[in-house]
From TrEMBL, chain A:
Any one of the GO CC terms: membrane
SUPFAM superfamilies linked to this entry: a domain/subunit of cytochrome bc1 complex (Ubiquinol-cytochrome c reductase) (SSF81648), Transmembrane di-heme cytochromes (SSF81342)
UniProt keyword list: Electron transport, Heme, Iron, Membrane, Metal-binding, Transmembrane, Transmembrane helix, Transport
UniProt keyword annotation of Nucleus present: no
Protein name per Swiss-Prot or TrEMBL: Cytochrome b N-terminal domain-containing protein
Automatic annotation (TrEMBL), chain B:
InterPro entries: Rieske_2Fe-2S (IPR017941), Rieske_2Fe-2S_sf (IPR036922), Rieske_Fe-S_prot (IPR014349), Rieske_Fe-S_prot_C (IPR005805)
Protein known as: Rieske 2Fe-2S domain-containing protein
GO cellular component: membrane
Upper lineage: Bacteria, Pseudomonadati, Nitrospinota/Tectimicrobiota group, Candidatus Tectimicrobiota
All copies of domain Rieske, residue ranges: 45-135
One of the record's GO molecular function terms: metal ion binding
PROSITE patterns cross-referenced by the UniProt entry: RIESKE
Cofactor: [2Fe-2S] cluster
Species in which this protein is naturally found: Tectimicrobiota bacterium
PANTHER family registered for this protein in UniProt: CYTOCHROME B-C1 COMPLEX SUBUNIT RIESKE, MITOCHONDRIAL
This protein's UniProt keywords: 2Fe-2S, Disulfide bond, Iron, Iron-sulfur, Membrane, Metal-binding, Transmembrane, Transmembrane helix
Transmembrane annotation, as ranges: 12-34
Domain of life: Bacteria
Pfam (any one): Rieske
C-alpha cells in the first residue's frame, strides 16, 4: 500500500530521474516537446551571469503574449466603431478581462526590453562573430519584429494614442523616397485612416508578424546549435586547458540514430568533456521551467498591480497635447522632431531623416558589425574583454544617446512639444481649440 | 541546326506553366489589396454659412481646418501639420499655429517659424453654394493671400 501510494505520488509529481545516461539521452529524443534539445548541455551554458537567460526570457514572454493574445481575440472587435468599446468591456465588464489585457501589455513591454538586452548581451560578449554573424542578423530582424508587434498592438484599442501613432507612423512611411506615397496608400488601404487601415494592422498584429517571429525564432534556436551552442563554449574548446580527446564513435547522442559520426553538439561536448556537461533532462528542462515561472509571475504581478492605460476614444479632429509615443518609440519621436534639415531652398523632413534614415542606418550598422569587428578569438564569449573597449563604448554611447532622447521625451516635453524641466509645471491649457 | 529533345521542350513548358500559374495567383492576391472603391469623405464639402464664423481664426473640428475671417473676407487654412500629420492648435495669444506632436510653429499665414515642419500649412479654395454655405475644395490649394468674399445677400 505504502509503495503504491508512493508510486502514485511520483506519477503525479513526475519525479523522474534517469537511471542511466542512455535513458537520459533517449528521454530527449523520444519526447516531442523537447526533442529539439541537445542531449547534453555544457555547464557553461547554465551560467546565470554569462547569458542572463535573456533569450529564454524573451521566448517565454512571446509564449505568454501568444496565449493571452489569442484569448483577447475572442473579445476584441477590429472595427473602428467597436474596437475602443470592446477594450472598455475587457477592462470593466468581462470577468478578468482586465487581467488578460494587463498581462498582454506588460509582457509586451518587457519583451521589448529583454529582446534589446539580449542583443546587448550578445554584443558585449562578442558572441556574434564568424559563423554566428547570420544568427546575429536573424536576431536583428527579431528585434525589429518585436517593435513592429508592439506598434501594431497599441494601435488596436483605437484610442487617441492609437490613432495619432498610426497617423504619425504611416506619415513617416510616406516620407520614404519614391515609394513613400505608394506604401502609405497600401498601409492605409486608401487615402484616409479608417476601417481598412485598422483591419490591415490587425491582421499584421495577430497573424503575419507573430507567424514570422515563430519561424524566425525556430531558425534562431536551430542556428545556435548548428553554430556550436553559446559562444562561451568556443573559448573553452580553443583554450589549452582542454585537451583534444579522441572521438568516441560508438557513443552518439545524435538526434537520429542513422546519422553518421557525431553531431555538432556532441562534438562540442566531447571537447569540453563529459564531466563538464549535464544531461538536458532533467537539468535544462528544470532550468527552463524555472525561468518560465519567474517570468510568468513577474508579468502576472505587474498585471495585477498596474493597469494598462486607455486614452479617450480616437478623435481625428484633435490631437492630445502633448501626444507622446510609448517609451520605446519616444527616442524616434524626439529624432523626427529635431532632424529636419534646411539646405538652401531645399528642406528634408525629419520624418525621413529621423524616422527612416537614422534608424535604418543603425540597423544596417548593427547587421554589418560582425564583418567590421576584428576581435581575436580570445574575446569570444567573454564579458567586456579589454581589447574590445572601443567597440563596447561605441555601442554604449549609441544606447546612452537613445536613452537620453527617451528621457527628454518622457520627462521634458510639455504642451506643444516645448521643453520643460522635470520640476517645472506645465501651463494650463484650454482643452479644446 | 540545333536540336532540342521533345522531352526538354515539354519539360520547360510544364515548369513554366506551373510557375506562371503561381505567379498569376500571387499577382491577383496582391492586387486585391489595392482598393478599387474608396468610401472616403469628399474633397469638396460645406463648412457652414459665412455668418456662422466670427472674426479671426476658428477651428472646424470635423474637417480639420480653420476658417480665417476678416470682415467679409474668408480664407481656409488646413489644420494638418505638414510634418507628420497631427492637428495643429491655434494659439491666439502668440498668435501662431502650434503642433502638439513634434513642436512645429507656424505664422498666421501658415509659413513655418520653427520646428520640423518642412512646408507651410495649406490654404484651400472657397466658394459659395447656391443655398448660402461656404464650400471648401481640398483638392485645390491656393496662395496664403487668397481670400474669398461671399457676395452680399440679395433681399427677396
Amino acid at each position: 500500500m505504502k509503495t503504491r501510494l508512493l508510486s502514485l505520488w511520483r506519477t503525479l509529481t513526475w519525479s523522474w530521474t534517469p537511471i542511466s545516461e542512455r535513458e537520459a539521452g533517449e528521454a530527449v529524443v523520444r519526447n516531442f516537446w523537447i526533442h529539439w534539445f541537445p542531449a547534453k548541455v555544457a555547464d557553461q551554458s547554465f551560467s546565470w551571469s554569462y547569458s542572463l537567460w535573456l533569450g529564454t526570457i524573451s521566448l517565454v514572454l512571446f509564449f505568454i503574449l501568444t496565449v493571452t493574445g489569442f484569448l483577447l481575440m475572442f473579445f476584441y472587435v477590429p472595427s473602428v466603431e467597436r474596437a475602443y468599446w470592446s477594450i472598455k468591456d475587457l477592462d470593466f465588464s468581462v470577468s478578468f478581462g482586465w487581467l488578460l489585457r494587463n498581462q498582454h501589455r506588460w509582457a509586451a513591454h518587457l519583451m521589448v526590453a529583454t529582446v534589446f538586452l539580449h542583443m546587448a548581451r550578445v554584443f558585449f560578449t562578442c558572441a556574434y562573430r564568424g559563423r554566428r554573424a547570420l544568427n546575429w542578423q536573424v536576431g536583428i530582424t527579431l528585434l525589429l519584429s518585436t517593435l513592429l508587434l508592439s506598434f501594431t498592438g497599441y494601435l488596436l484599442p483605437w484610442d487617441q494614442l492609437a490613432l495619432w501613432a498610426i497617423t504619425v507612423g504611416t506619415n513617416i512611411a510616406k516620407e520614404a523616397p519614391l515609394v513613400g506615397d505608394w506604401i502609405y496608400f497600401l498601409l492605409l488601404g486608401g487615402n484616409v485612416i479608417g476601417q481598412e487601415t485598422l483591419i490591415r494592422f490587425y491582421v499584421f498584429h495577430v497573424f503575419i508578424i507573430p507567424g514570422f517571429v515563430l519561424l524566425a525564432v525556430a531558425y534562431h534556436m536551430w542556428r545556435i546549435r548548428k553554430d556550436g551552442g553559446l559562444a562561451a563554449l568556443d573559448r573553452l574548446e580553443s583554450s589549452a586547458e582542454i585537451k583534444e580527446k579522441a572521438p568516441v564513435p560508438t557513443k552518439t547522442y545524435s538526434l537520429f540514430g542513422l546519422a553518421k559520426g557525431t553531431s555538432v553538439q556532441v562534438k562540442g561536448v566531447d571537447k569540453i568533456g563529459e564531466e563538464n556537461s549535464l544531461f538536458a533532462t532533467p537539468h535544462l528542462l528544470r532550468r527552463i521551467m524555472l525561468v518560465f515561472l519567474v517570468t510568468f509571475t513577474a508579468t502576472l504581478l505587474l498585471a495585477i498591480f498596474f493597469n494598462a492605460p486607455l486614452e479617450e476614444a480616437a478623435n481625428p479632429s484633435v490631437t492630445p497635447n502633448p501626444a507622446k509615443a510609448p517609451w520605446y518609440f519616444l527616442w524616434l519621436q524626439e529624432l523626427v522632431a529635431d532632424t529636419t534639415l534646411h539646405l538652401g531652398k531645399y528642406t528634408i523632413s525629419g520624418g525621413l531623416i529621423g524616422g527612416i534614415l537614422i534608424p535604418g542606418l543603425l540597423l544596417l550598422l548593427a547587421a554589418l558589425w560582425p564583418f567590421l569587428d576584428r576581435s581575436s578569438p580570445q574575446s569570444l564569449g567573454v564579458w567586456f574583454p579589454p581589447e574590445r573597449r572601443t567597440q563596447n563604448w561605441i555601442f554604449a554611447v549609441i544606447v546612452i544617446a537613445i536613452i537620453l532622447l527617451m528621457y527628454i521625451g518622457v520627462a521634458m516635453r510639455g504642451p506643444n512639444w516645448k521643453i520643460y524641466w522635470p520640476w517645472q509645471n506645465w501651463p494650463q491649457l484650454p482643452t479644446l481649440l | 541546326m540545333v536540336t532540342i529533345a521533345r522531352r526538354t521542350v515539354l519539360k520547360v513548358i510544364g515548369q513554366l506553366s506551373v510557375f506562371g500559374a503561381f505567379l498569376i495567383q500571387i499577382g491577383g492576391a496582391v492586387r486585391a489589396f489595392i482598393p478599387n472603391v474608396l468610401y472616403e469623405p469628399p474633397k469638396k464639402f460645406k463648412v457652414g454659412k459665412p455668418e456662422d464664423y466670427p472674426e479671426g481664426v476658428n477651428f472646424v473640428p470635423e474637417h480639420r481646418l480653420f476658417t480665417v475671417r476678416s470682415a467679409n473676407e474668408f480664407g481656409i487654412i488646413s489644420a494638418v501639420c505638414t510634418h507628420l500629420g497631427c492637428t495643429v492648435r491655434w494659439e491666439s495669444k502668440v498668435p501662431e499655429f502650434e503642433c502638439p506632436c513634434h513642436g512645429s510653429h507656424f505664422r498666421p499665414d501658415g509659413t513655418v517659424i520653427s520646428g520640423p515642419a518642412p512646408r507651410p500649412l495649406a490654404w484651400f479654395a472657397l466658394s459659395l453654394s447656391p443655398d448660402g454655405y461656404l464650400v471648401v475644395d481640398r483638392s485645390e490649394q491656393v496662395a496664403s493671400t487668397y481670400r474669398f468674399s461671399p457676395p452680399a445677400k440679395e433681399k427677396a
